[in-house]
Amino acid sequence: MSSSRDVTSRLRQTIWNGSLPLEIRLHKGDCRTYDDSDPYLIQYPRLSYLGLLIHRLRAFFSNKLIYPDVDVTDLWLEHEGVPLKWHYPLGLLYDLYSGNEPAYPNDATSSKVDTAADDQVNLPWRLTVHFSDYPVEHLVKLDADGKHLYDMFINSAKEADYLRNGTGRTVMSLSKEDSTQLWDSVQQHDFSLFGPINQKLLNPQGVNLRHIPIKLYLPHATSSSKADAAAKSKDKAPGSLRVVQALVTPALSSRQPQTVGTALNQIIPSLFPSRRSPLLAQAVLHGAVLPLASSVEDLLRVAAYMDGWMHIAVIMMA
Amino acid sequence: MTNRISQFPVLTTDEFKIASATLSRRFEQLNSSQSTWLSVNVLREEQCTFLQILKARPDLNESTTNIHGSAEPLPIEDDDEEEVLQNVRPSSVVITYDVLLSPSYQVPMLYISFIDAQHRYPPTMETLYRYLIPRQFTEQINSVGIIGGITITDHPLTGSPVFFIHPCQTAAVMEASVGNKELTPVEYLMVWIGAMGGCVGLNIPIALAQNDDTPCSE
C-alpha cells in the first residue's frame, strides 16, 4: 500500500519537474537590426504557461525592438506559423506542434527512454516572439497584470473540480484562499504550495470521484478520412484544433476500471476503434504515448496538469 | 402533456436538442411578427448540436453617446433614424449568440461574437463593455454577478476567441429563477435566456415569449 503511494508521489514529482528547453527568437519584422538579435534561452516547466513569461521577454528584447515602447500585451508567440494559445500549458503545445516523436512505453526501461528520445528530437524547441500584428482572431489577448491568465486557469480548475466531485447541486469546493494559493503555486512553479491544495482537491471528504477531467486535442488534420480532413482544414487557421470532452467515469462497472483505451473508444470511436491497441492514432500526455490499458483514475492522480485536467494530444499514426 | 426536465437544474443532451429545435420552430412561425432576432437555427458541427441566434447590432453609438446620463433613454428620433440606417446599411453588424450544452456542467453555455466585415469589434474587454453590455447593466461592471462571469475564451468549435458567460453559476441561477415549477425543455431554455442573456443584449422577443403559453407537444 505505502509503496504504491510512493510510486504515485514519485511520478507526480517527476511530471512536475518535467521541462523543455526553449529558444525564443525575435521576429525580424519587430527587430531593429533585422535578424541579428540573440535568442532568449530558457528551460521551462512543461506544466507551466508561456503567458507567465511575457514581462521577461519584453525586458529581454526591449533594446532590439523597432518600437521600444510597445505594450507588453502586444506580445505573442508562434511556432512555424501557429500562434500559441496562452491558456494551453507548454507541454500540451509541444506535444501538439513540435513534430517530435513522443516516447513509447515499450522502448526501454523508464530511465533510458528519456535519453534515447532526446538524442533524436529536435531541441531546443524554437519559438518566435512577435510584438506587432497580434492575431486577435486566433489568440485571447492578455493583460499586463496576468488577470486574464488567472481567470482562464481558475475557470478551468473549477470545471475540473466540478467534474471530479460535482452534482448539479453541490457548491464548488475550491475556496477563494485555495484558488489564490493554487495560482501562486502555478506562477512560482512551487510544488510545496501546489501539493497540499492538489491533495485537498483530489481527495475531498465524503465525495466519491464522479468523472475524470479529460480533454482531447485533435489537430484538424486528424481525421479518419484524409479527404475529410483536407476539406475541413481548408479555411481553418494554422494549427487549429478540435477540442473534445465527454463525461468519463472512473469505472465501467464495479469490477472493471475505465482505461485510457475504453475512454478513447467511447469518446472518439472513429480514431480509436479498438480499446486495446492503437490502430489509427496515439494519445500523448507529457511527451509520452499513453498505454491504453492504464486506468484513467490512476493516471489522473499522477499525470493531471496543474488545472486538474489531463490535456491529451491525439496524434495520427504515420 | 409535454415531457418535463428530468434532472433539473441540469439539462440532458436530448433535452437540449428538443429545446433548441422547439425554439427554432417557434421562431420560424413568428418570424414576420418580430424583428429583434434575425434567425434561430439548430446547427450541427463536429458531432456537436448547438443553437445559433443572430441579431443585428441595433445602434453603433448607443452605449457611447449617452455616457453622461445613463438613466435617460435615448431620444426617440435617434432610435428611428438608427433603425432606418441599420436596415439600409449593406454591411451591418451582426451579433452571433451560440448556445452549446456544457459537457461538464450539463447546462447551456453562451458564446458571443460580432460578425463585422471591417473587424471593428475584436474580442477584447473594451469591446465587451463598450458595445455588448447594454447601458443599464454597465453599472454592475465590477460586481460578481453574471457580468462578473463574462470572460473571453476560445469558441469550442471554431477555436477563435469569443465572449463567454462562465456556466459555473448557471445551475444555481436556474434554481433561483424557477423554484419548484416544472419546466419543459423549451421553457428551460427560455428561462435561461431570460436569466443569462439580458446582460449581453440577448432578450427573448415579446412575440416569442407570449407564444410560450401555447402547449408544444407535437
UniProtKB/TrEMBL annotation, chain A:
Keyword field: Autophagy, Isopeptide bond, Membrane, Transport, Ubl conjugation
Domain Autophagy protein ATG5 UblB: from-to ranges: 211-314
Any GO molecular function: Atg8-family ligase activity
Residues of the Autophagy protein ATG5 alpha-helical bundle region domain: 149-203
Membrane topology category: Peripheral membrane protein
Keyword Ubl conjugation: yes
Compartments where found: Preautophagosomal structure membrane
Subunit and interaction comment: Conjugated with ATG12.
Job description of the protein: Involved in cytoplasm to vacuole transport (Cvt) and autophagic vesicle formation.
Family to which this protein belongs: Belongs to the ATG5 family.
Name under which the protein is recorded: Autophagy protein 5
From TrEMBL, chain B:
Keywords from the named record: Autophagy, Protein transport, Transferase, Transport, Ubl conjugation pathway
Gene Ontology CC: cytosol
UniProt xrefs under Pfam families: Autophagy_act_C (PF03987)
Xref: InterPro entries: Atg3/Atg10
GO molecular function, one term: Atg12 conjugating enzyme activity
Keyword presence, Protein transport: yes
A Gene Ontology BP annotation from the UniProt entry: protein transport
Record PANTHER family: UBIQUITIN-LIKE-CONJUGATING ENZYME ATG10
Family, similarity comment: Belongs to the ATG10 family.
Protein name in the entry: Ubiquitin-like-conjugating enzyme ATG10
Taxonomic classification: Eukaryota, Fungi, Dikarya, Ascomycota, Pezizomycotina
